[in-house]
């Protein structure tokens, strides 16, 4: 039985689909840009280590996904418990596949207990090499 998605996860996936300007149009399918983003995750008081452990558990399996290009976790030096996941996926289908993986779904099921506010996903456009 699948766990129902949290409202913030629906919003996250909608943002990933609707808000990403790197989606190809019908006329522009020759060069598809990867989806690059920063996920911002802020731990509830007392949940910093649990959130960190949950995020670290995503690293290895996500990097093994065929469409993953980058997946690196950072913690804000001056704000312990605030994490940034730098992530890049080959395309929207790869990101959608990531959201549907059992390990991401397990993490999503615990997020309400760990996060002080909804996960924020910021999409980026690369402007330099």
UniProtKB/TrEMBL annotation:
Under Gene Ontology molecular function, one entry of this record is:
monooxygenase activity
Which keywords appear in this protein's UniProt record, sorted alphabetically? Monooxygenase, Oxidoreductase
The residue ranges of the ABM domain are 35-123
Q: What is this protein called?
A: Antibiotic biosynthesis monooxygenase
Checking InterPro entries in the record gives: ABM_dom, AI-2_Isomerase_LsrG, Dimeric_a/b-barrel
Q: Name one Pfam family in it.
A: ABM
User: Which organism was this protein described from?
Assistant: Pseudomonas haemolytica
């Amino acid at each position: 039985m699948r766990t129902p998605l949290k409202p913030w996860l629906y919003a996250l996936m909608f943002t990933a689909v609707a808000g990403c300007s790197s989606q190809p149009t019908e006329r522009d399918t020759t060069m598809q840009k990867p989806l690059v983003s920063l996920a911002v995750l802020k731990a509830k008081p007392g949940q910093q280590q649990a959130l960190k452990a949950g995020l670290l558990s995503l690293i290895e399996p996500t990097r093994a996904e065929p469409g993953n290009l980058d997946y690196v976790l950072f913690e804000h030096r001056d704000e312990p418990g605030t994490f940034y996941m730098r992530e890049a996926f080959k395309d929207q289908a790869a990101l959608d596949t990531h959201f549907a993986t059992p390990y991401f779904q397990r993490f999503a099921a615990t997020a309400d207990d760990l996060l002080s506010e909804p996960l924020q996903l910021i999409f980026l456009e690369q402007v330099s090499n």
